[in-house]
Amino acid sequence: MDETIVEVRDLRVDFPVMAGTIEALRGVSFLLKRGKTTCIVGESGSGKSVTARSMMQILQKPGRIASGSIRYRDRDGKITDIATQPAGGRVMRAIRGREIGMVFQEPMTSLSPVHRIGEQIMEPLLLHFRLQRAEARERVLEMMARVGIPNPVQRFDNYPFQLSGGLRQRVVIAMALICEPRLLVADEPTTALDVTTQANILDLIRELQEEMEMSVMFITHDLGVVAEIADDVVVMYAGSVVETADVDTTFHAPEHPYTRALLQSVPRLSADKDLPLAAIRGMVPHPLARPRGCVFHPRCDRYLAGTCDTAEPATIAVLPEHHVKCARVGQDITQGR
Amino acid sequence: MAEPSAATLLEVRDLSMHFPVTSAGVLRRVVGQVKAVDGVSFCVREGETLSVVGESGCGKTTLGRCIMRIYDPTAGSIRYRTRNEGEVVDLTALDGRALRPYRRDIRMIFQDPYASLNPRMTVEEIVGEPLVLAGHPRNKALHRRVGDLLEQVGLRREYMARYPHAFSGGERQRIGIARALSLNPRLLVADEAVSALDVSVQAQTINLLKKLQVEYKLTYVFIAHDLSVVEYISDRVAVMYVGKLVELAPTRALFARPAHPYTEALLSAVPIPDPRLRKKVERIRLAGEIADPSNVPSGCPFHTRCAYSDGNRCVREVPALRTLEDDRQVACHYAETLELKGAPQVAT
What we know:
The complex is a heterodimer.
Chain A: E1 4-17, E2 20-33, E3 37-41, H1 48-56, E4 64-73, E5 79-81, H2 90-95, E6 100-103, H3 107-110, H4 117-128, H5 133-146, H6 152-155, H7 165-177, E7 183-187, H8 195-212, E8 215-220, H9 223-229, E9 232-237, E10 240-246, H10 247-252, H11 257-264, E11 315-319, E12 322-325
Parallel strand pairs in A: 3-8, 3-9, 6-7, 7-8
Antiparallel strand pairs in A: 1-2, 1-4, 4-5, 9-10, 10-12, 11-12
Helix pairs in contact in A: 4-5, 4-7, 5-7, 7-8
Chain B: E1 8-22, E2 30-45, E3 49-53, H1 60-67, E4 75-81, E5 88-90, H2 96-105, E6 106-109, H3 123-133, H4 140-152, H5 169-181, E7 187-191, H6 199-216, E8 219-223, H7 227-233, E9 236-241, E10 244-250, H8 251-256, H9 261-268, H10 313-316, E11 322-324, E12 328-330
């Protein structure tokens, strides 16, 4: 049995706004295992970024964790519930950067434009460890080389604007990894990059993960990327987790109609070009006007009146590590792809 | 599907778009050139979908904007075959009023459905605006026409009184498509038209574009970076690298057997949505970044990252774009001798 490093259970996050309360997360549960990569997949509005931000207690205002727990197990086996910690408190400050590193989508927004990149990578090191500057600088140069930044000594004094998008993302990764965190939370880290650069960054994350025995929580909307790097997959839709399984099951034996439809709507190389893509009808519901019952039912091809539109379905374990939130699972659903 | 013999609708010949780089300070002397598009030639055949792909900075967007005459190309010609039988005009030689009739024939669909619609105009005004500018009176017929256009793109005609903010990204993109269709164009230039959309909505939009192409006999120039989408919708694909066309071939041939090392690397980087292939596929990884278009490497612009560079001819001599036997154009000295790998899941 794999060791669990984070257990998220029934997490609810609300954003009270003028027009009402947006339930960004409506009872989200999943596990992150030690040394494994878990991908959180979903379309816009599914709550995947909010999940990532909750892990670090950096929700944007007016978001707040309404209930649920995020139980983090540290190096000594001590368990901390991140969900109940004050965002600016001592415990969170000790976890952020040290225990959990984070990489965001757009590298330019996570870097300061007026500080040299070397100094920026060094900052968490000086915060979390008692190190002399010279020693810290050595560690930074080492990390820069490790993430594939050419000529670290010269690049140390560069500003972010002097670097390409791919190199900036490497700087952000170096910053996230400099304290050797046990968990890396990466929110769409390759979405703004070219495919060629994306491939290199994915390789890098994979390599560093193996070297450092780190867990990775990788947020993406790209199913191709999921297939490339995930061990486990959490599929989210409109604030709920609809399916969790290992990557092979997700792609080859998915149970939830949304997961299946999502997989079929991706254009694939070598598919029959004369057939239209299997699009999902309709669109993601507005967060303030979500349908009753199962949130996916208006778009679902397995929709059953009287069942799907009345009560929210329970999450069922179809296998020990394969959970599906669908009332129709087990009811003669035809074999998936 | 366009036949190889299909009539050419648009012919781009030796097109260049060089932007001047000026020095800081008051003098603003021209100190260099960014060669965003540099001597590009290709044909667009009537009824086909030609995709242009490449990394950011390769000049694909600039190329689209030159075709739209948003930019004034610095050299070359864009020869367009008009609706009058046999008449061919050079769009780069025309300006203002003379260009206007052709602006109705060539329309654009933009990437960002949030930025490309005026938030202060209703959908009726947005979709009807090109018609009004073309002299259509603001009457019941216009109202009807806008309603028809909305239905064509899968929106309800009652929506026309609403403002863009009331729509999702996918619906806005449909509004943009309806606007582009309003003047019965022949050629649509779509610059990353589906990139900003969610997977499920992206599929709807791609299906819509394919349907409209058949109904209106449209020709598409589809500028994109997502190769799975490109493979699905294109008849032919053009690959650009630092302002130059490096390969152009029918889609199936290009994906199955690329002739340019850059195409091979690009195909190899596409993530495959099947975890079982993850370990089986050997990937080519490109070192470094795309070359700087203001300081293009000597010889073949790709030689700095190319695994097959001979370190001699490739460094000295710019490879010309040559036509191979299978309706393919390629700019590599060794196109005939290299045995390059196609996209992993496409059987050859």
